[in-house]
Design goal:
The complex is a heterodimer of chains A (476) and B (447).
Chain A lengths: L9 H10 L1 H9 L19 H11 L3 H32 L3 H13 L4 H4 L2 H13 L5 H10 L1 H6 L13 H11 L7 H11 L2 E4 L4 E4 L9 E3 L2 E3 L3 H10 L1 H16 L5 H13 L4 H10 L16 H12 L6 H11 L21 H16 L7 H8 L3 H11 L7 H4 L2 H5 L1 H13 L5 H11 L7 H12 L8
Antiparallel strand pairs in A: 1-2, 3-4
Helix pairs in contact in A: 1-2, 2-15, 3-4, 4-16, 4-17, 5-7, 8-12, 10-11, 13-14, 14-15, 16-18, 18-25, 23-25
Chain B lengths: L6 H14 L8 H15 L13 E7 L9 E2 L4 H6 L10 E3 L5 E3 L3 H8 L3 E8 L7 H10 L11 H9 L8 E4 L15 E3 L20 H9 L31 H25 L10 H14 L6 E6 L8 H26 L5 E6 L20 E6 L6 E3 L19 E2 H12 L5 H4 L10
Parallel strand pairs in B: 1-8, 1-9, 5-11, 5-12, 6-7, 6-8
Antiparallel strand pairs in B: 2-4, 3-4, 5-10, 9-10
Helix pairs in contact in B: 1-2, 1-8, 4-10, 9-10
Classes of the chains: A mainly alpha (476), B alpha/beta (447).
């Protein structure tokens, strides 16, 4: 459940285990059978007036007026982006389809696209929905649609590529980072593919992909051994036809779910299953989650939780509220995983690179914020800037929006567990670690509680925070 | 583990107490290696322990994204330049002239001042054979000092730490940021990372009276210590994480062991870093940019005597496929101004002669501009080395921009970046470079 979703309470885990292996996997993977009534953000639609507003900003008279308009536009973007992050995190934490969201998170890291360059919340939401719609579908279709989606057209400059000077950015990354990996294509393949992709463009008025024949290079090209007047879709098809394409994406998925790269032999087997599944993810993942290799002892409790996994998983295990979007965003940014703003086209490195002296201390301190419902140590100025406002009214609004829930010991612990120190520690180990701590660590927690003859909520919250402030809590 | 042990005691404990003990308990593999290295070091009394408190210091500044070197150090008199850059080309009037052919981008007033003061060395045309135009691969090549066709697991600075700083303080390498750069990846991962010193601590939430122990903090420290009292079954037999795709390779350790080690490094360094940042004041004014803040902080830490040999800072945004003019202007202004302030601050402290700054970018950009007002990924580019003991001026020669001399549209390198690394390692950090770089590169005469 930690691997295929975002963790859960002991009751949820017990329910899943009770189903038996095949139905349990199916209950996660066959998410289409579960209705998802989550409404879209109310701004999540094309906005033809945006172009007009942008023109107004440029044309309007004085520099002060221009700055003012620009500032309002920026603030509106910031607000929507905060809302979008909250919207997605809620889907992960409380939505009916955790596995689908886990896949959306994978695709976001894979096709790592940043708001910093795209600068349009609608496009970022739209790409997120594309990942959701095609989360476990066909690989060729996903590559094609992701490549033609506005966010990607902007992110890798394809929208600006012209027949006379093809821009190589998308052509390179689609092979290097999205499908084949370094060393499985030549520089020549890239320049040729860049020619083939010309014509893929963005209509900024309708805010949709558009094919522009007059900027397409319709000469002969050779890409990965295929010759002809190739267009972008031909290149994608030729990429997916490479045996390496199946090896590349299955290795990356295995790493995402299992926590380490597969051995070459296992990768060959995974790629074979993927090919037999018609390069479609759902059947491949079903086999993967039922394979003996996935449950190998060496993989268990050896995957560093990503910051999103850490935050959403903590909220689910503690049965508490997700912090308000602004706070969640601030936490994730400090932990190194700002959603919709990956560090570069390669996405997040993941694994043990999530852990530095800085991010580890931040995890331990954010644990306190979650448990106590206090706002973490973010600078007020930074928050105000992100919220896009100034002055007392905005400050009041921020204070309001930062109200956090905290953990209720009465909700997650029985009266016996709350009263008995040994039972308390055991219950928290089950809930938070799904495994016992070492004897030494248990002794340390018992010594911490020793001066307390009667446990109160404050003591219990402290112990919860301490369990979360261990190396063991950072892995799944 | 009954009494609170002080930071200094902890350090002593790590460095010395364990030297005397046999490794009778099972410890994670990388720690065993650390101890073995310590044993080796203790055995060799001739090996001096480099603390960094009075040693030379290297500051590495990454210009991420691939800076357009051609519009940074501009061959303004070249006809080939003007032909290749009809829109982006800078004219003689638009550059800060160094000589009749070469000038700095007009935003680099900071660099021009450093250059005129004899504190800036411009190494021209730095690159490597068969240049790779992928950000990630080329960054990896620079970070690991590998050959173009070889994958190295560890970074060049990580190998320096492994070779020359075994058993040293975790703060021997300091990264200002949130992620450890690949250059620091090491057999024994070492180095601390932080953004904001004020938040670099465990916040217990308790308010103990003076003299009273903060039980929460005390417990946190103990929970994050390696267990040494109870022998445990070998954790390392399980499997290896040696093949993470991009993350740091681990020597047969479990993730939890790595996290425990990091937690101990954090404990040991956090008090010291915060104390220095609070006590030391910058005497120069730094630009209000991320880079300005980072360099201002590094200067404080140097002034405060943190035992660091290598600092790592970065500035991003150089991937100018489109609308290059405004972006590069802003970034280079920030770069030059921040470094000029850094030098002034170090000089006011009296530490300038101990510090060397080296910049790098994963590649330069294509000679010909593209149709989007930008430039695409290229190859060789200049490297800047700053300090008051550098061989100032233009080093090497400017690569030819003549179409016949280009390699797939890019200028050819004439200085291998590893001969710059060799110079920094041998002539500045005073350590043999061959064990670190894999073979002997002739050190460029730069310091």
């Amino acid at each position: 459940m930690n691997r295929a979703g975002f963790g859960g309470s002991p009751a949820e885990i017990t329910r899943l285990v009770g189903l038996g292996p095949d139905p349990a996997v199916a209950s996660l993977l066959d998410y289409e059978l579960i209705p998802d009534p989550t409404p879209n953000p109310d701004w999540a639609h094309p906005d033809p007036e945006r172009m007009q507003r942008e023109q107004d900003v440029r044309k309007s008279g004085t520099p002060e007026a221009r700055r003012q308009l620009q500032m309002e536009e920026n603030q509106s973007i910031q607000r929507s982006m905060i809302e979008l992050r909250g919207w997605w995190l809620r889907r992960m934490a409380y939505g009916p389809r955790p596995f689908q969201e886990k896949m959306v998170l994978f695709w976001h890291g894979h096709f790592a696209t940043s708001m910093d360059k795209v600068r349009d919340p609608y496009y970022m939401w739209r790409q997120n929905e594309l990942f959701r719609r095609l989360a476990t579908g066909n690989w060729e279709l996903l590559l094609l649609e992701a490549g033609q989606d506005p966010a990607m057209l902007i992110w890798l400059d394809q929208a600006q590529s012209r027949k006379a000077h093809p821009n190589e950015n998308f052509a390179r990354e689609v092979m290097e980072l999205f499908s084949l990996g370094e060393g499985h294509y030549t520089e020549h393949d890239i320049t040729e593919a860049a020619r083939a992709f010309t014509g893929w463009s963005l209509d900024r008025l309708s805010q949709q992909y558009v094919y522009r024949p007059f900027i397409h290079d319709d000469g002969e090209k050779v890409v990965l051994g295929r010759r002809g007047d190739l267009n972008g879709a031909d290149v994608i098809a030729q990429i997916v036809a490479q045996p390496q394409a199946a090896r590349f994406i299955t290795a990356k998925l295995w790493n995402y779910f299992a926590g380490e790269m597969p051995s070459p032999e296992l990768n060959t087997a995974l790629a074979g299953v993927f090919r037999e599944s018609g390069n479609t993810f759902k059947p491949f993942l079903r086999v993967m989650f039922r394979s003996a290799e996935f449950y190998d002892a060496s993989l268990i409790r050896n995957q560093v939780k990503s910051p999103v996994q850490w935050l959403v998983g903590s909220v689910r295990m503690l049965e508490c509220e997700l912090p308000p979007p602004l706070v969640s965003m601030g936490m994730l940014r400090q932990l190194g995983q700002d959603l919709f703003a990956p560090p570069n086209v390669k996405g997040w490195d993941g694994g043990i690179t999530w852990i530095t002296t800085n991010t580890l201390l931040t995890r331990y301190n954010d644990a306190q914020s979650l448990v106590r419902g206090t706002v973490p140590n973010l600078s007020a100025a930074d928050l105000a800037r992100k919220a896009g406002g100034q002055g007392g009214q905005v400050a009041a609004h921020i204070a309001q929006s930062l109200r956090m829930g905290g953990v209720d010991p009465d909700k997650i612990l029985t009266p016996t567990e709350r009263a008995n120190k040994n039972e308390l520690v055991a219950a928290l180990e089950r809930r938070l670690l799904q495994a016992p701590l070492s004897g030494d660590q248990e002794d340390i927690l018992n010594q911490f509680l020793a001066p307390r003859p009667q446990l109160n909520h404050d003591d219990i919250l402290n112990v919860i925070r301490l369990v979360m402030s261990t190396p063991e809590y950072q892995v799944a | 583990m009954k009494n609170e042990i002080s930071l200094q005691t902890r350090r002593q404990f790590l460095r010395t107490t364990m030297l005397g003990s046999a490794l009778s308990w099972t410890v994670p593999a990388f720690l065993a290696e650390t101890f073995n290295a310590l044993h080796a070091q203790a055995a060799d009394a001739a090996t001096q322990f480099a603390t960094g408190k009075d040693s030379t210091i290297l500051v590495v500044l990454q210009m991420a994204g691939g800076n357009d070197g051609i519009n940074t150090v501009v061959p303004y008199s070249s006809d080939y330049y003007r032909q290749a850059r009809p829109h982006l080309g800078l004219t003689a009037e638009q550059v800060l002239k160094v000589n009749g052919d070469i000038g700095f981008h007009s935003a680099l007033t900071g660099f021009k001042d450093l250059y005129d003061a004899g504190r800036l060395s411009v190494i021209q045309g730095v690159g490597y054979p068969n240049p790779n135009r992928s950000h990630f691969r080329s960054t990896e090549i620079w970070q690991t000092a590998s050959d173009e066709d070889k994958i190295e697991k560890y970074g060049w600075l990580g190998r320096y730490f492994d070779n020359a700083c075994a058993g040293s303080d975790p703060a021997v390498g300091v990264t200002i940021g949130s992620q450890l750069p690949e250059a620091f990846f090491a057999r024994q991962p070492r180095g601390i990372v932080f953004n904001n010193p004020q938040n670099y601590r465990f916040l217990s939430g308790a308010h103990p009276r003076p003299g009273e122990t903060d039980l929460t903090e005390d417990s946190y420290k103990k929970l994050n210590e390696l267990e040494m009292s109870n022998p445990q079954p070998d954790d390392n037999s399980g499997g290896s994480i040696g093949s993470l795709p991009a993350g740091m390779p681990m020597q047969g350790g479990r993730a939890v062991d790595f996290i425990t080690r990091t937690a101990m490094d954090a404990q040991m360094s956090s008090e010291e870093v915060r104390a220095i940042a609070a006590r030391v004041k910058n005497q120069a004014v730094f630009p209000a940019s991320q880079l300005g803040n980072s360099l201002g902080l590094v200067s404080k830490l140097i002034g405060g005597g943190l035992p660091t040999r290598v600092y790592y800072v970065s500035q991003g945004g150089y991937d100018t496929h489109t609308n290059q003019v405004g972006t590069q202007q802003r970034l280079l202004q920030d770069l030059g101004d921040s470094l000029k302030s850094f030098v002034a601050d170090l000089q006011a402290q009296g530490n300038l002669s101990r510090v060397l700054v080296m910049t790098f970018s994963e590649f330069g950009r294509r000679v010909a501009e593209n149709a989007s007002g930008g430039t695409d990924h290229g190859a060789a580019a200049p490297v800047f080395v700053i300090g008051d003991r550098v061989k100032a001026g233009l080093l090497g020669r400017y690569p030819s921009l003549a179409p016949a001399d280009l390699y797939e549209g890019d200028i050819r390198y004439n200085v291998d970046f590893r001969s710059v690394y060799a110079a920094v390692l041998e002539d500045w950090l005073k350590t043999p470079s061959a064990p670190i770089l894999g073979r002997q590169f002739t050190p460029l005469k730069v310091v």
